[in-house]
C-alpha cells in the first residue's frame, strides 16, 4: 500500500483512539524514525510524497516541525517547481514560435525579388503592404532567394597566378 494512503488511513483510525494510545504510537514511530535516520543516509521520495508535503504545508501551520529527513526549504522548492511547471505546461500548449506565412506569399516574395533584383527587403515590404499583405522585413529576408557568390580563389590558385611575376622581378645579383 502506498505510504500516502496508509498515512491517510492511520489518520482516520486515530480519530477513534485514546490520547494515551496515540502518544505511545507517536513515541514508537519517532523511535523508528530516529533509527531509520541513523541507518539510511538519504531516503528516496516519490512524486506523491512531494505532493503530500507541498499540500500539507499549505494546510497546516506546524508542518516544519514535523519534518524529519527533509528540510523546510526543500518543500518550498518543490512548491515553486510545481508552480513553475504548471504555468509552463499551460503556456506551451500551442505551437511554439511564429505562425508560418502562406505558401502563396512566399512565392510572391520570391517572384518579386527575381523580377526586381535591385529592390531591397524594405521596398518589397512596402509593395506587399500596398497589396494588403502585412509582413516584417525579417520575414522577407528569410524567404527571399539568396544570391550565390562565386567562391573565392584558393591559395594554390593565387600562387600559381603570381609566382611568374614574383620570379621575374627577383634579381639574384641584388643578394650579393
Distance between the termini: 100 Å
Order of helices and strands: HHHHHHHHH
Q: Which blocks of ≥5 consecutive residues have pLDDT under 50?
A: none
Q: Identify the overall geometry.
A: elongated
Largest sheet: none
- Count of discrete structural domains: 3
- Give the radius of gyration: 38 Å
What's the quaternary structure here?
A: single chain
Number of strands: 0
The count of helical stretches stands at 9
Report what the structure shows.
This protein is mostly helical. The protein has three domains: 1-41; 45-91, no CATH class; 103-143, no CATH class. The chain is 65% helix and 0% strand. It is built from nine helices and no strands. Helix 3 crosses helix 5 and helix 7 packs across helix 8 (137-143). The radius of gyration is 38 Å and the shape is elongated. It starts with a helix and ends in a 7-residue tail after the last helix.
In short:
By secondary structure, the protein is mainly α. It is built from nine helices and no strands.
Describe this protein with a few key phrases.
176 residues, mainly alpha, 3 domains
Task: List the SSEs and their pairings.
Elements: H1 3-14, H2 19-39, H3 47-59, H4 63-66, H5 72-91, H6 103-115, H7 121-130, H8 137-143, H9 155-169
Amino acid at each position: 500500500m502506498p505510504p500516502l494512503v496508509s498515512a491517510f488511513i492511520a489518520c482516520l483510525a486515530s480519530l477513534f483512539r485514546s490520547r494515551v494510545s496515540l502518544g505511545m504510537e507517536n513515541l514508537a514511530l519517532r523511535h523508528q524514525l530516529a533509527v531509520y535516520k541513523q541507518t539510511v543516509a538519504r531516503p528516496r521520495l516519490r512524486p506523491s510524497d512531494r505532493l503530500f508535503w507541498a499540500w500539507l504545508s499549505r494546510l497546516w501551520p506546524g508542518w516544519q516541525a514535523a519534518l524529519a529527513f527533509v528540510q523546510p526549504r526543500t518543500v518550498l522548492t518543490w512548491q515553486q517547481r510545481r508552480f513553475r511547471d504548471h504555468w509552463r505546461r499551460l503556456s506551451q500548449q500551442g505551437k511554439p514560435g511564429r505562425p508560418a506565412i502562406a505558401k502563396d506569399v512566399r512565392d510572391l516574395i520570391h517572384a518579386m525579388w527575381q523580377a526586381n533584383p535591385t529592390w531591397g527587403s524594405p521596398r518589397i515590404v512596402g509593395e506587399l503592404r500596398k497589396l494588403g499583405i502585412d509582413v516584417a522585413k525579417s520575414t522577407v529576408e528569410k524567404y527571399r532567394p539568396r544570391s550565390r557568390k562565386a567562391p573565392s580563389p584558393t591559395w594554390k590558385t593565387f600562387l600559381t597566378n603570381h609566382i611568374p611575376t614574383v620570379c621575374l622581378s627577383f634579381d639574384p645579383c641584388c643578394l650579393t
